[in-house]
Amino acid sequence: MSSSRNASPTFSHRLARRAALRRAAGCLAGCVLLTLTPGRSARAADHDDQAWVNLSLITPLAPRSELKVDGFTQLTGTSSPARELVRIVARTRLGDQMMLGGGYVWTHVDSGGSDFTEHRAVEQLDFQQPLKWRGGAVTSRTQLEERYRGGQRGMSLRLRQLTRLDAPIGKAGVGVVLWNEYFHELRDTRWAGGAGPGLMLNFVGVHVPFARGVAIEPGYLRQTTFQPGPNPEINAAAIWITVRR
Predict the structure, then answer these.
(1) What is the pLDDT of residue 49?
(2) CA atoms within 13 A on the CB side of 5
(3) pTM flag (> 0.85)
(4) What is the residue extent of each domain of the chain?
């Protein structure tokens, strides 16, 4: 008797379900990539290919509080980074699904003839809704930034809204990650422009546990800047590395 004849119906059903989930995840990622791929008319806009690297360290402050420190660099074909950023945010848990926090951001930009430093105060509200399907989750982060640019007068007030979907596809914690972040200027400033849509980030990637307390999320990111005429775009190979103590 062959081993295939001895396989139980339950085991065969599990194999078929896993294969179907893998195909569904592949189709989902393919659909997202097709959605993010610009049409012929959009290709008339300026494009830039880059690499983005973000390292996050999360450490507890108290039983219901934590500190998150981010270090980010935006790399182009030049010898120096186009952007460097450090973000420090303390967050307190308000319940099982909500966290409130605030902190400080330093960033330096040296790209396209622009060379400046910004200091930002940030306040944010995080909300996570677990999903019934295989431990997935939808996360929302609403963030308000008070931005000050060196050598410029006035404060920019910007709202950022991030929506993220985590869809696990394996028992080892591997999952598909999709997120969108929208930036909206709330007031007119000479150096940041008028109030209205600022830019949008779209990301599709994979969440992979790398070691105990360490996860990596490599993927594809597109940034679109909203302005009169063609909207400049950045296509980036991106990786997010998170270390949780």
Answers:
(1) 87
(2) 2
(3) no
(4) 50-244
- Domain boundaries 50-244, corresponding CATH code: 2.40.160.40
- Rounded to whole angstroms, the Cα distance separating 80 from 112 reads 12
Q: Is 193 left (phi over 0), alpha (psi -120 to 50) or beta?
A: left
- Flag whether pLDDT at 171 surpasses 80: no
Amino acid at 231: N
CB atoms within 10 A of CB 171: 8
In the chain, the largest separation of any two C-alpha atoms, in whole Å, equals 82
Query: Residues 143-158: what's their mean pLDDT?
Result: 96
pLDDT at residue 193 is higher than 50? yes
Give the pairing of strands 98-111 and 175-185. Answer: unpaired
pLDDT(50) > 70? yes
Contacts of 181 (CB under 8 A, 6+ apart): 160, 161, 162, 163, 200, 201
Instruction: Decide if 144 contacts 169 (C-beta within 8 A).
Output: no
